[in-house]
């Protein structure tokens, strides 16, 4: 299990536990459950890289303790 921190820069900071073989779409669903937003309105970014839903976290080299930026469409 890894723990990822997502910050939307508007006051919400969410810590989510997931597996490295989960997809980004699965991570969005876990974040949506904690924030109360729809999972398909969430966009995850790290600098200028936008993460796509069907790719696994380990393929993006997302590891334990990593911080991601949380945007809403």
UniProtKB/TrEMBL annotation:
All copies of domain Ubiquitin-like, residue ranges: 2-73
Record bears the keyword Oxidoreductase: no
Coiled-coil spans in chain: none
GO BP term, pick one: mRNA splicing, via spliceosome
Keywords: Ubl conjugation pathway
This protein's GO CC annotations: cytoplasm; nucleus
MF GO annotations: protein tag activity
InterPro entries: Hub1/Ubl5 (IPR039732), Ubiquitin-like_dom (IPR000626), Ubiquitin-like_domsf (IPR029071)
Name the record gives this protein: Ubiquitin-like protein 5
Organism whose genome encodes this protein: Tribolium castaneum
Phylogenetic placement of the source organism: Eukaryota, Metazoa, Ecdysozoa, Arthropoda, Hexapoda
Record gene name: AUGUSTUS-3.0.2_30562
